[in-house]
Specification:
The protein is α/β, with parallel strands linked by helices. The chain has one domain: Vaccinia Virus protein VP39 (Rossmann fold), CATH 3.40.50.150. 40% of the residues lie in helices and 21% in strands. The protein has helices at residues 3-12, 14-17, 24-31, 39-51, 66-72, 87-99, 117-120, 137-144, 174-191, and strands at residues 56-60, 79-84, 106-110, 125-130, 148-157, 196-201, 207-212. It has a seven-stranded mixed sheet, with helices on both faces. It is globular and about 45 Å long. 31% of the residues are buried. Bound molecules: S-adenosyl-L-homocysteine and magnesium ion. S-adenosyl-L-homocysteine is lined by residues 35-37, 61, 63, 66-67, 83-86, 89, 112-114, 131-133, 136. It holds the Pfam family Methyltransf_3. This is tRNA 5-hydroxyuridine methyltransferase. S-adenosyl-L-methionine binds at residues 37, 67, 84, 112-113, 131.
Length: 214
């Protein structure tokens, strides 16, 4: 997608965003470098929630609670269980969820997503959103995809990571290169994973949409 097309579509949505109070958090996120989900990617996810009549969501990576509340806002009766390990983020998320009155629709699980099975394994989910440390996406998929109902969705954000995944040679930092390699490996693993069907969208930072076989 060209920069012009992207800007055109983002601006086209502006009229809706003006009535969307959760959108106020985008300004905070940008000022504090919190990597919340990009606008067109979010619209795609909200549309999938409507299409699939999603009611229960498991999210790995809450940050300030922006995406959790956006998902819960699609319609009444949606419940989001979301996991976050960073104490500062947990604090912000709690404040935001309370401020926007989503306490009844969102359960915030505090701690590392690979250690909080106790709070996550007690139910099944219509949708899993993997949006935490990018090098760990495979681990979280293996851990939590079994909890997704047959026919349910597993969405992975940032599968193109800043355009580096398709063009790793431009990456200078050793750490970033390591991480990008893991994202490449994850994408290659995911696309041919048995029992699941995945397509990759090149909107913004890239979104993988996986449907679990029935
Ligand atoms: N989903 C949010 C953005 C999440 S940013 C939104 O779109 O609004 C990624 C978050 O994942 C960060 O806040 C980071 O602290 C958290 N995170 C990274 N690894 C984690 C882990 N292993 N367990 C729990 N949270 C993790
Ligand atoms: Mg993301």
């Amino acid at each position: 997608m060209s920069e012009k097309d992207l800007n055109y579509l983002v601006n086209l949505h502006q009229v809706l965003k003006e009535n969307d109070i959760i959108e106020q958090l985008r300004e905070y996120a940008e000022a504090h470098q919190v990597p919340i989900v990009h606008p067109l990617t979010l619209d795609m996810i909200k549309q999938l929630i409507r299409m699939k009549d999603v009611r229960s969501v498991l999210e790995i990576g809450t940050a300030i609670g922006y995406s959790s509340m956006q998902f819960a806002s699609v319609k009444s009766g949606i419940h989001v269980t979301t996991v976050e390990r960073n104490p500062d983020m947990i604090q912000r998320a709690k404040e935001n969820i309370q401020h926007y009155r989503y306490e009844d629709n969102i359960t915030l699980v505090e701690g590392d997503a690979s250690e909080r099975h106790d709070a996550i394994f007690n139910q099944t989910y219509d949708m899993l959103f993997i949006d935490a440390a990018k090098a760990q996406s495979k681990r979280f998929f293996e851990m939590y995809a079994p909890l997704v109902k047959p026919g349910g969705l597993i969405l992975t954000d940032n599968v193109l990571y800043h355009g580096f995944v398709a063009d790793i040679d431009v990456v200078r930092s050793r750490n970033v290169k390591q991480m990008v390699k893991k994202v490449q490996k994850y994408n290659e693993w995911l696309i041919q994973l048995e029992g699941y069907h995945t397509n990759f969208l090149d909107i913004e930072d890239g979104l993988a949409i996986t449907i679990k076989g029935e």
